[in-house]
User: Fold these one by one.
Assistant:
Number 1:
Amino acid sequence: MLGRWLVGLLFVYLGLNKALHPDLFLKLVRQYELVSNPYLLNAIAAALPWFEVFCGLLLLAGVAVRGSALLLLLMLGVFTPLVLKRALAIAAAKALPLCLVKFDCGCGTGEVFACNKLVENCLLMVFSAWLLTGRGRRLCACFSPFRAAGKSPET
Amino acid sequence: MRKILLEGLLVAAIGVTLAFVANALSPRGLKLNRDYFHLSLQAQSVATNLSLKAAGAGTNSPAELLAARLKAFGLQLVDSNRVAQLFNDPRRQADLLIFIDARDEDDYQQGHIPAAFEFYDAYRDKYLATVGEACRLAQQIVVYCHGGDECDDSLHAALTLRDLAGVRKEDLFVYGGGFTEWCTNGLPVEVGGRKSGQLLDHKK
């Protein structure tokens, strides 16, 4: 339960940091060179931070926990390799060991050491996977739109 | 498992919808239909830089690469010596020669070239009327940001002024070294608003 709240709070915090400065987040997303279409780039930078806040709030409230956890796991599964790829590119360009690379990955925490961020993301993925199993739902609103009537929340 | 997937899809659908609504309502929200980085023009610049690197086999300096990149966009680069001359030009007192600070609002307030106009391109609607009018009256316009070949803000601001404010490209210059170089050279820095009169003491 405490872990669910912590992860929820973390995503709300990280999401808000980006949502309140979408211009800076847009520049960071662009640096990943994922998309060249300006409108798609804008859509990603505009929606992603608020979407993280939404998922974080759902985790805090205990609403649709497993669905939110699934989405967070998917996002982390996509972003973490991208962060690694970018860190490796910076390491190659500056002739630095990977773990000495410090850059703003667009995660909402400003500049971070690459290795620290990768470890953090892996831990978040593990915890999201754990939430996916249906655990950590004490003191939750325990609402899931697809829970069959009469079954307990844990099944 | 199927229920989890369906739940995830529902959360995604609602979340994305709410996210776009939040962006639309936020005063700092992004305009979805705007090309913030002039990406449609970027190909020219990339091609120029690639051909420069091929020709120079890695010997091109950052300044040369920046100059080539600006040239690809039809813009002119000025160096620190020229900028210092322009700053001391008497036309600046009458706003016939103006400086435009293309960095974000916080950076501008913390310090800028004295009497420089604030023009953060990401939120240009806020500044376009005032700065556009000043540009129409000016004979020369120098745009700057932090500096270095990684700083794009001055490039985007210059392109906006050229395309939306009708500034002639012959009158428009980009200061490559930017505010970082300006401060390194110990030149005057004004804090607060434009023409606030509060100058920063570099010696402190």
Note: Residues 2-132 of chain A form one domain.
Number 2:
Amino acid sequence: MRFHASLVSLACMFAAVVSAQQPPAASDPVPVPQNPPPAPPVLPQPAVPARPAPPFTLQVDPKFPNIQIQRGDPDLPQTGNGGASASFDGTGRVGRPVEFRVTVMGAIRLIEPPQIPEVEGLTFQSAGRSIMGNGITVHRFIVIPSRPGTFIVPSFEYVAGGRNITIPQSRLEVAEAQPGEARYQPLASMIEMPKRDFYVGETIAARILFIETPDESPTYIQNVSKTSGSVVFRVENMHRSVEVDINGTKRRAIAKPVQITPMKDGETEVGCQVIVHVQKRDISGLGRGFAMQVQSTIDVPPARFRVLALPKDGRLPGFTGAIGEFALSAPKLSGTEVEMGEPITLAISLTGEGNLTGVSAPELPADNPDWQTFKPTTDFASPNDEAAPLLATKTFTYTLIPKRVTARGTPAIPFSYFDPVKAKFVDITIPPQPVKVTPSTEPIAAAGTASTPAEKAKEVEEAAGPKPIEPALTGLAESPGLWRPGLRPALWSQGFLAAQIAPLLVLGGLWAWRKRREHLAANPQIIRRRKARAAARVALGDARSAARRGDQDAFLAASTLAIREAAAPLDSTQATSLTQEEILRILRDDERASQTAKSIFESAEAHRYGVNGAVKPDKLMPDLEHTLARLTAKA
Amino acid sequence: MKSFLQLLLVFICSTAFAETPDERFEKATTAMSDGDYGEAAYQLRELVSEGKYSHGSLHNLGIAEWKVVRPGHAILAWERANMLNPHNANTAANLAFARKKGELQTPVLSWYESYSAWLAPDVWLIAASVGLWGGVFLLTLPRLLGMRRADWHQGAAAILLAAFLLTIPALFGLSRRGSLGVALEDSTGLRLTPTRDGEELVTLPAGELARVEKERGNYLYVRAEGDRAGWVRREEFQRIWALK
């Protein structure tokens, strides 16, 4: 059910859109609909009569069939060219603004606002323009009627973008203000300054105030330009929101700080013109409650004050134009001891409120016999204090060179300023600062003793000291020196890096050798075993030789020696001391080896005593080798 | 076989008639005495191209190049001669002369680079090797050889190891000085990019020293005093210690 309801509402909306976009059939004026759209709800205000809805027509431009232009009054002759219109937003009341709109069609850039012809009793004020789609530009004006009646704004020509446009005339009905109704109160503005007389050259901290009213409120200050007054008018970049006391009432305002420096004495009037963005609240006065942001050019009421010339009497030495209230800081010397001829710096700072930016440094007397002086440097710093906008510090740095060792201190520097509040000059002379001057270590010329130009030149030359020796090209090298194959230091050669490994290898080898020696010393059986194996191998070789020759005696002697040598590491005695029983005990777990050893030992014993048994060395060799292998494995 | 014999003959002839470095040096010296600096420069350049370097030949090459108005090459030769023999007053004086004449910026060396310039690079390397390995051997050999370690062993080892430690900053300085090179041509352009049409940011006068920071193709990125940096072509700039 809900889905069907949505479909129905969508269909209705689509139909409405299609009907709204359908162009009219002709460009002729279309009859006014009998039921115009309802006006926005208006709060009941019995004091203000309801305004009758103005009759209007809809005209369609053939170039822009979708655009319908509202004409002002069908009773009045229309002189427009079909591309422009002018109309008031309803009727007006004396003292209350009413909006006047000039609408221009066409895809051209309409930058210039139209110049509205003067109409006695109406004040026009531009309120900006709106550029809409399809090349429509609407110029808005705020109109304030000063009397009741019917006003006609005549048709006028308007050249914009190289095109002549005729703006049709329009009519405004103005009624008397309702009893008790307040007149429209535009933004109030003023230049706020201290209330006293000022002096030529003095910098005055002032501010331009834009004070809000029930009808208008300032939002942003775009530009300030001086319109009158023989003054230097310097405007600060920022502005701030402040609260001011107007006849005992606290009002919000926007303040733009300015610094005013009078240039001439006498009565002075300073005015300025300011472009301000203003928010207009409820311009109709009917409580409709809408606000409108407009850019207004406001002529601020001029400030009048008296400017006096600085008094000629009582002027003190060292006055360089400083007007205000200042304090001098303690002078700072770069050193308290200086060699004659060497420079030293003296820095002084002047802090206070006044025209510090234009104050130049007090000058030192040029003919000082003890000191050579130079033009000082200056440095300016401002803390940007809101409460004291003129507060700043100016530092003067002097470079001084002592000419005599008799100088005991820096020269006094006369300095003074004019206090505009006390109306008198104030002395702030910089006192001498104690300095110890020591004789120069560099030879200096004895000035003034030369009588002839040649002597003077010589003196100057001597005073300049020894001339620096200019370098010169030297002689040739007589011998080439040691030849080398390249310039690259050995550090980058691979050979050098490889050579660094050689000592490491030597040390490693020595360490391994040392460790082996220690190991063998701790384990003597290793050496004994190796010796036994070697001796057994030699005896076995002898036995093989004897077997090949068929020499039984030699075979038996070599065989017994081989068995004894192989068994020696298994016993604590020497090889030659081992008996048959001891060897058989060692080989008791191997029958073959045991029988071989027994046979060899017994045959050898028999041969020793002349009994020649039937020993066949060829057949005994494998058994002998097996026996030796067993003994070696056991060792 | 015949061609081999021909080649052998050519080799024998070429070696028999090739000039020794000393002979070339003598020819160059004679040419300079006669005022023929072009010939002298040619002979000494030939020695360099053959890879034969000595302090005397480089010193004289610098003078010859200066005389034939090639200040960049002259300063390069003197820098190289100074590297081989840092205590030669004549070479140092010529370098000072050339820098004064050309109003060149004197390169600021760090303390370890200045320290490494007290001795020739090879001397530092030999000192480092002898110090390190001598100290290590003196400390370890008596024990490895089963000898009793004597007091002098330890004293000498301490001295040698201390000498090695003293060479470490110099070795570091040497490695840093290896990036120094000389702009050979006047108005050597430092380019924004390592390309032929790269925008020239600033130019270096002939003989100005700069450090090579990176390389790309035929270009070197160098930085001179005052942070003047950019890409230069290899043929416009040469390291003092020809590493390659």
Note: The two ends of chain A are 109 Å apart (CA to CA).
Number 3:
Amino acid sequence: MLWLAIHYPLLGLEVLTPDDEAAIVVENNRVYLANEAALQRGIQTGSTLASAIAIAGAHQLTHLSRNPQREHTQLNALAEALYQLSPQVALAAPDGLVLEIQASLRLFGNAQAISQRAELISFELGFRGRCRLAATPAAAIALARAQAPDLERLPLHALALPAAAIERFQNMGLVQVGPVLKLPDRAIARRFGKATLKVLRQLRGDTPDPQRFIEPAAEFERQRHLLDPIRSKQGVLFPAQRMLKELEHWLIGRQLAVAELHWLFSNSQNERADVILRFSTPHQNADRAFRLLRLKLEHLSLPADVLSLTLQATRLEPCVAEVGPLFQTLEPAEQQRCPDELLDQLRTRLGEGACCTLIAPSQHHPDWLSKRVSVRALSESRALSETRALSESRAPGEAKTTTRDYRPLWLCRPPQPISPRQLRLLHGPERVRTAWWHGGVERDYYVAEHRVSAHQTPAQCWAFNDEQDRWFIHGYFG
Amino acid sequence: MRYRVEAMAQKLADPQTAPLFPIESPTTAHTPLSATSPTPKKSPASTPSRNDGTAELLRHPQLWQARQLKQNDECWSSGYSAFDAALNGWPRSGLTELLLDRPGIGELQLLLPLMRTLSDQQRWIVWINPPHLPCAPALEAAGVDLGKILMIHPRSSEDLLWAMERCLQSGTASLVMTWVGGRALQEQDLTASQSRRLKLAAKAGRSLACLFRGIAAKDQASLANLRLQLVPEVTKTPTAIGRPAALCVSVCKRQGGWAGAEFTVQPDSPVSRLHTQERRFREQLMLWRHRRTDRSQPVACPPEASTNRSAPSGLPKRTITPIVH
């Protein structure tokens, strides 16, 4: 068993504010956490709020009160994001996570790669974590918290021992874990009690240390409350990107892909703006979702002073692994882009009706030769055309090419009435009759040359003469 | 501008008007110009130069000549021999303008072989603001994959230009055809700066933009890489059924080449030729299959003899019926 612990030293601060200005988190009127800028000014953790303000000046120091509820929620979210590295992730409250990575070593290469990845994922979500590896979960988390190189030199106060026990060890001249672990168990049990012995035995791995592994939620919903109201759309994008990153890691962990996202932006007056993003193909890519959100926001008015953002994945589908082509026909840069992203963007800006594709309904009726239909995703239509090709391979070259050779490339909808004097008939007629349930049209089709005046360029057209002896142009041989 | 520099260089390089002097070209891999253009001759290096100032000017790193411009060596075959001979095919990226009087004179026929080639790619073939509805069966018969066709009908010119730029830039559209006209896009909406944006987008996304414009736009300056004017050839006799007359293509502008070339393409040829080839192949396949399945029938003639459709003398009639449409 190999355990990876990741400790977030500034979790309590990072859940509240993302920026680097001097800031402290206060609990019970004492400084609980201070960031680097605050530490440089001389503020120490544990000092009172009054002395911290006196040192830094009231206007240059942000002080926030601790929110353990949010810390816990965020720790859970981080655990779900790291679920992609190992199926066994446990919380080490209040500010750490423990992962069992023995089974993942082969997939990711080595333990170093996994810890780097864990730190990177945390960093993408806005949290700085520090990793340590050990043979037991208790040792891993203790090493990560103390940032000690090994158990020998781990300071005793990093362990969850009673304060009295630590003091007695110190009085005996023991400040590091190494010498303590060498003492006989019976002596420790007699002098310090069974609780201390249990902690030490779990550190060594002699006593089982059961962990409660998380089960990632079946639904994805995240909410983010902001300290300062956001007045511009650009300001919304920054927290939105973080949330989408969180979604991406959650999706990878759950092996799911998202097809529809629901954003909700609201302010303190309860005014809200809903944004729904639909994707033609389910995917896991946060950048793709972000680009679409940015496009959508361009033409949308948000409520003034947005204070909270909610992201919900409303339609999830199992993730289908991408199958690349065997031969590289395009440049690598072109292959990385998804053709369906273009479709999503066009639909988002121009509307659903503005984008369409063509199908050829197998109809004899000349008005229904070609039909506009809403466009499918390219991957979907590829699968469709493959099945169609399979079904058609049974009977190659039916009556398909016989008449269609003579069909024009442009069709006028509806057919344009025309004076027969402007037409010079070249070929024909071809009688087209349709059944009564299709309107019962009876037309004589000709290939003709259409010319309005002697100076105009002639064009070959597909004209017909109906029952009432009217003439129409139905298409051009473009 | 670059043409002017080229002309100046030629004038100076002309042995009759100016003394010979070497013109060094920094690029070694330059492609030759088309045959009609007069190429400046390289003079022997030994000839002393009197006009040292010009020679120095020509050696200046910031001055470049038109022939140094790297020609777009990556081209798609157009499917027409005359077209390929004159222009080396369709460029793979960039902005192309097709100037025509009215839609329906054979402009789609000119692009059909290209569309068939591009159907093999996993990229869209985009039609923006087409004047009429394209006929799906005719496209399908020409070998165009309907699943790759994306038709966009924007309402305003702003949306149209955005959509076109987006399609080109994304790199996931192989060909973007846009028709100027109708409600969405007027000639005056297309300014030089927008053409430039489209050109850059096409270059970035490695896709070909085809802009169909009226012939009136011929006199306007354009930033397109290639401008072709399409005029149908006037013939007295009717052409093959359902095929437009031959198309006269004249090159109005060509980046890295010379304008003024004119050639004629017969839109009939590639499609019908392919169809006959395909049909012949299918017939052979059918004959072969029937021969394989029908063991009881003795083979009457060798398969080579059955290539000719009209004279399958020794075969039973049943095998022929499904082939003749």
Note: Confidence is low (pLDDT under 50) at residues 393-404 of chain A.
Number 4:
Amino acid sequence: MTAFAAILRKDLRLELRSGESTVALLAISLLILVVMVFALDASRARGAEAAAGALWVALVFSGMLGATRAFLAERDNHCIRGLLLSPIEPSTLYAAKLAAAFTFMAIAEIGSVILMVLFFNLNFDFTLVRVVPTLALGTLGFAALATLLAAISNRTRMGDLLLPILAVPMFVPALIAGVKASSFALGGAPESAIAQWLKILVAFDVLFVSAGYLLFDYVARED
Amino acid sequence: MAAPVVETHALGKTFGQHHALRDVEMRVLPGRAIFVVGANGAGKSTLLRILAGLSAPTAGHALIFGLDSRRLSARYRRRIGMVAHQSYLYPNLTARENLEFYAELYALPDPRETAVRWLERVGLERFADRRVRALSRGMEQRLAAARAMLAEPGLLLLDEPFASLDGEAVRIIMSLMRDAVARGASIVAGMHVVPEIEDLEFEVFDLARATLTRRPPTRDGGDAGRIARLRSLLGR
């Protein structure tokens, strides 16, 4: 637990010091939402469905950036080797990196939700609270997947290109579930309608958090 | 006889068609120092990375504390300290924060006090709150040595530990190496040339064309021995 807290605290301290990830994540979320507002039909762009779609596109792209950034600090001076050499379990390292990526993404999502409400003419009311479980589960799933893949891509020369190519197709089941659950939540649908999609997100999270926990040692180490 | 800290059998490493290491046989006992001497690209760094468990051999195996270097548990990894070409230090953290972070990873008591103590040992106490990115290469190397030795490891793997260091810094690192051997730690160090270290017994291996060969000990201790004796005659 000490090592987990130490790595997470170090990542957050580095981020607070530079602010690079949060600013980049917020900027990309803003750009995506602006593009989506203009790209979608004016009448449709006011609906919960369009807002949910735009929000999840922003989540996917900011998530990729967040996971990459969480590993970028370890690339400097080959710090990842210092971590792998230290007496911490690889699963602890994975959990700390996942927590860091989740935190960066969550901060960006708070900004994205505010922008979504403004751009898509929604109201700041209780419906936003109903989206929180969906977003939290989606963020956890994407962070789990992207952290695992970032550890692989971090070792390759074409890593920055490899991450989106691998992550986006693998995230499709959770993306569909997330968009559906979010549009139901924003549109005021009953809880039961949201719950069935949340189950898919939970299953996705369990699958990729477990995979990351078990496989991180193999993917992070060099050949 | 004590069990070897490092033991390799027919160790090999290839990168595509290129043989970086071939049939490396090595045995290091507790409290012994071995210097692996070779030119740039001879395979010293590769050998040290394999011994640290950071890289896998493509042939043979390396045993560290009697265990396969790729399967070392946390308990055994904490007994290895490594100084590599890269410092493994975070450029945007200060010198003290870096050491504190590693002290926490190694679950050392009072990480802050430990960090301060090691900063003093490597003569960087005045630069404790300076970010690593603002340190000179030599200072960063000293800090990397402190990072590697924080937990007083039983095996020190040093890759060109004297590179970029001035005379004072070289003396500090030599003193740390002597202290480590005195408390029973083993050292495997990769170097370009055999250094001149007083009060430290060491064996020399040459690494050339991917092959490691033991240099026969000279009766007068080689260049290092001759210089040490000359110094003592001159009263230095």
Note: The mean pLDDT of chain B is 89.
